[in-house]
């Protein structure tokens, strides 16, 4: 009789453990669902081209270059939404400055092209400095943090030059090319003779190539490289991408590139 009782207790204990493990598994699954749901809530709104925030984060900035700058913080000013003005370029500084004033207040955003690391050891390519005040505030409140452009990641590739102002490039020659790295805000490439590199800023439908550094090799038939560098050096372009062809258009020139596999 004792053996029967012991056997019964063991069976009941095993069933209880099994149910406990089952309930524990369900608890983990519920937590995972909550985690995914929270992640979905933090998605970047459609149309946003640039994001920035403080370390805490006690503030955030979303810029849609076709629409508005949206600044929010836990302190005052709580929220400022302004149109996106034409940027100013501070002298001797690799930065863009946006100053906007509305009936609600003033928002000034300066985006510096310099590495920025958060307290969580996240690397960003831009440091952001903000001065903001609501209409009834006497003084500006300042905010500092890190930011990044949400660019078109189809650009992250090597592009070989096809045409300059509609004129095809001789493909028997070493053609110039550009390689964009949106994450680090850099452009690399080949001018036809020398290696080149510089800074890169990508916005909604435009990209700006900074002053390019170049190696100093001497090559025959250097005219193409000279022409190419004069066109792309320290210049802003509107870009279009279609069927593996990238078109860059400035005020004076149009370049087309083909994606290199």
TrEMBL record:
Organism of derivation: Galbibacter pacificus
Name the UniProt record assigns to this protein: META domain-containing protein
Coiled-coil ranges from the UniProt annotation: none
Domain DUF306: 157-257
InterPro entries reported in the protein's UniProt record: DUF306_Meta_HslJ, HslJ-like_sf, Hsp_HslJ-like
């Amino acid at each position: 009789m004792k053996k029967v009782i012991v056997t019964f207790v063991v069976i009941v204990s095993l069933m209880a453990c099994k149910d406990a493990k089952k309930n524990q598994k369900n608890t983990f699954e519920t937590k995972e669902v909550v985690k995914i749901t929270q992640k979905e809530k933090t998605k970047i709104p459609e149309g946003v081209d640039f994001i920035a925030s403080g370390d805490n984060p006690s503030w955030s900035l979303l810029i849609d270059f076709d629409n508005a700058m949206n600044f929010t913080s836990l302190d005052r000013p709580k929220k400022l939404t302004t149109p996106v003005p034409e940027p100013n370029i501070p002298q001797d500084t690799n930065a863009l400055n946006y100053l906007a004033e509305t009936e609600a207040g003033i928002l000034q955003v300066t985006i510096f092209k310099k590495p920025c690391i958060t307290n969580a050891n996240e690397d960003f390519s831009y440091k952001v400095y903000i001065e903001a005040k609501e209409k009834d505030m006497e003084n500006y409140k300042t905010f500092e943090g890190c930011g990044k452009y949400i660019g078109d990641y189809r650009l992250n590739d090597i592009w070989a030059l096809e045409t300059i102002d509609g004129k095809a490039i001789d493909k028997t020659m070493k053609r110039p090319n550009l390689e964009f790295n949106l994450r680090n805000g850099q452009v690399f490439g080949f001018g036809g003779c020398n290696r080149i590199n510089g800074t890169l800023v990508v916005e909604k439908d435009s990209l700006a190539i900074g002053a390019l550094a170049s190696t100093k090799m001497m090559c025959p038939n250097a005219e193409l490289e000279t022409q190419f560098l004069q066109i792309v050096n320290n210049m802003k372009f509107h870009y279009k991408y279609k069927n593996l062809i990238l078109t860059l258009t400035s005020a004076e020139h149009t370049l087309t590139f083909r994606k290199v596999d």
